[in-house]
Write a structure and sequence with these properties.
Layout (H helix, E strand, L loop, with lengths): L1 H10 L6 H18 L2 E7 L3 H12 L4 E5 L17 E5 L3 H7 L3 E5 L2 E5 H15 L2 E4 L1 E8 L5 E8 H6 L6 E10 L6 H9 L18 H10 L2 E4 L2 E3 L1 H8 L9 H18 L2
Helix pairs in contact: 3-5, 3-10, 8-9, 8-10
Length: 272
């Protein structure tokens, strides 16, 4: 017992204070949070398309923040296909995996397999290393507009507030460009269509995604990644939902390339 106590004392010579730990966490978080209340680009949803977009944007010098309502980031990648932790990427998307250092191998001609867990980990690390900020457990419940009804920012709240249905007023952040990467529901596009009278989101409004057709879905998701309303770009499955594209399942090349295109569109709007 005496040896155990001496070893512990040697390993931890400094007495730890719980309040100092609390202050370190709160002060550090608030400093970062306040820094990102006024940004170039705010991305909603930390799925594969938006993670790729965030890295590209930050590398180009855009002040970039990603809001994710869940505890974990990565969107639909984690579960692979039916909880088998593997994803497929076609050849066109492999160069994005290369940029993030994700290992993959060829399964059949044109089909490449990667670990879903490694993919999320390295996409996330790439975003952070590029200088973008990811804020989890925060939901976006509305958009902020100005006289011309162009989107000027986002209205945010804790995800816990939404889940428990508490009546708590939100806060707002300013953004020059918003990217909706909220997946199948296209939450931000839907809010714009519902709350701005006469708003035309995309060419037809938020149509909703069509059933599974991987070949067509992968080809069209990049094509329909576009500015769907002034100041709002739809990426990934949100873009497919707006345009009525097909879902494609656990093949992610289209998601990665959609994120790359969304970033390019945002940078063009910013003049960067």
């Amino acid at each position: 017992m005496d040896i155990f106590i001496r070893n512990r004392a040697n390993a931890l010579p400094m007495a730890l204070d719980e309040v100092t730990i609390t202050k370190a966490i709160v002060e550090s978080y608030m400093e970062s949070f306040l820094k990102y209340t006024d940004v170039d680009v705010a991305l909603v949803g930390a799925g594969p398309a938006n993670l790729v977009a965030a890295k590209k944007l930050a590398e180009a010098g855009a002040k970039t923040v990603v809001f994710e309502k869940n505890l974990s980031v990565g969107g639909g990648i984690w579960g692979g296909g039916m909880m088998f932790p593997r994803i497929v990427v076609q050849e066109e998307g492999c160069r994005i995996l290369d940029e993030f250092g994700v290992w993959y191998r060829e399964y059949a001609e044109g089909y490449y397999i990667a670990s879903s867990i490694e993919t999320v980990a390295k996409l996330t690390a790439g975003v952070i290393e590029a200088g973008a900020e990811i804020i989890n457990l925060v939901t976006v419940e509305d958009v902020m507009i100005r006289e011309d009804e162009k989107i000027a920012g986002l209205v945010i709240n804790w995800e816990a507030v939404e889940r428990t249905r508490l009546h708590v007023d939100p806060l707002s952040i300013r953004a020059k460009v918003v990217i909706d990467g909220t997946g199948h529901d296209a939450n931000i596009c839907e809010v714009v269509q519902r709350k701005i009278p006469g708003a035309k989101v995309g060419s037809l409004g938020v149509v909703g995604e069509k059933p599974m057709w991987a070949d067509v879905g992968e080809k069209t998701v990049v094509e329909v990644t576009q500015e769907v309303y002034p100041g709002l770009i739809a990426a990934g499955m949100a873009a497919a939902a707006v345009a009525g594209g097909h879902r494609m399942g656990p093949i992610f090349g289209g998601m990665l390339l959609s994120g790359e295109k969304a970033a390019a569109l945002a940078l063009e709007k910013l003049g960067l």
